């Protein structure tokens, strides 16, 4: 499915061009040139093909003492992209938090992480950003990509190259979201876990993020209310409804 949407990028590019043209007519502002696919370098990916990176067995998802999801069963292989959808309050973020905690602590018998799993988690708190560092230094700090890819990811997410040396402390909330996403995408991980990554992003940046997630050679676990993003990026979709966790795609 991921390959299918790579094949569809020609159409997506045309849609993006039309969008930019429409924005230019309404705002009088020329939009950036269309981005090219990014060739992310994830060491060891060839050895991970079809490997199971994460297994969730008969997991009950609770917030305090309230059951949000009766039972979650999930198996994710390297290179697969999955999305989790559902109304607010159904337990999507709680599920991601439980997966990340189990990965870090390795202490939950119902959430089994492969030793090969390297999980990066994007969430809205953004506490991982050091406000005393520059935009570029923040991305370079954990990056395993070359500098050109680091800068391209930043540019695709809407950062002007002339502003790469601005400090994080002067950035708006939306800019910090973009920076956190960029930092994660170039770091030494093979699974991106994203909780509502399009919040605070404009429509052009959402389109660029979508294309980068399609290009990303690792695995994506996505929670989003953006149906187009879910449809284009995911191979499998799971819906939480009435405390049930069911595959719908």
Entry keywords:
3-stranded antiparallel sheet; 8 helices; 6-stranded mixed sheet; 249 residues; alpha/beta; Rossmann fold
Structural overview:
By secondary structure, the protein is α/β, with parallel strands linked by helices. The protein has a single domain (2-247), classed as Rossmann fold (3-Layer(aba) Sandwich), CATH 3.40.50.300. Helix content is 36%, strand content 23%. The chain is built from 8 helices and 9 strands. The strands form 2 sheets. A 6-stranded mixed sheet has the order 5-6-7-3-8-9, sandwiched between helices. Strands 2-1-4 form a 3-stranded antiparallel sheet, covered by helices on one side. α4 runs parallel beside α6. It is globular, with a radius of gyration of 18 Å. Residues 20-32 have low confidence and may be disordered.
Write the layout of secondary structure elements.
Blueprint: H1 2-7, H2 9-27, E1 52-63, E2 66-77, E3 81-86, H3 92-105, E4 111-113, E5 119-122, H4 135-142, H5 147-156, H6 173-185, E6 191-195, H7 203-215, E7 219-223, H8 227-233, E8 236-241, E9 244-247
Parallel strand pairs: 3-7, 3-8, 5-6, 6-7
Antiparallel strand pairs: 1-2, 1-4, 8-9
């Amino acid at each position: 499915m991921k390959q299918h949407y790579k094949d569809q990028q020609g159409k997506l590019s045309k849609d993006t061009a039309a969008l930019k043209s429409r924005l230019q007519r309404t705002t009088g502002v020329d939009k950036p040139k269309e981005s090219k696919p990014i060739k992310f370098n994830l060491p060891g990916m060839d050895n991970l093909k079809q490997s199971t990176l994460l297994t969730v067995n008969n997991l009950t998802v609770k917030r305090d003492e309230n059951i949000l999801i009766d039972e979650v069963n999930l198996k994710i292989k390297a290179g697969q992209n999955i999305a989790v959808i559902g109304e607010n309050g159904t337990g999507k973020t709680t599920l991601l938090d439980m997966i990340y905690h189990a990965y870090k602590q390795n202490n939950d018998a119902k959430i089994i992480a492969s030793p090969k799993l390297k999980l990066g988690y994007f969430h809205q708190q953004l506490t991982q950003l050091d406000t005393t560092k520059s935009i570029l230094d923040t991305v370079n700090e954990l990056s395993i990509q070359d500098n050109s890819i680091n800068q391209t990811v930043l540019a695709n997410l809407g950062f002007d190259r002339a502003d790469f040396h601005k400090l994080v402390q002067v950035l708006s909330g939306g800019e910090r979201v973009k920076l956190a996403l960029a930092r994660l995408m170039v770091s030494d991980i093979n699974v991106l876990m994203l909780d509502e990554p399009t919040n605070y992003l404009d429509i052009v940046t959402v389109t660029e993020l979508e294309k980068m997630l399609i290009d990303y050679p690792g695995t994506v676990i996505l929670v989003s209310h953006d149906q187009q993003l879910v449809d284009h990026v995911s191979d499998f979709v799971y819906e939480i409804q009435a405390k049930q966790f069911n595959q719908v795609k």
